[in-house]
Amino acid sequence: MQKSSLVILVTGIVAAGMWGIGDYMSHRGELYGDVERGQAIAEQTCLQCHTKFDDDPHPNPEAQNAPSLASFGQRWPLENLEEALAEGITVSHDNITMPEFSLTPESIADLLSYMEKLTQEANAKAVK
Ligand code: HEC
Question: How far apart are CA 97 and CA 116, in angstroms?
Answer without folding.
Answer: 24
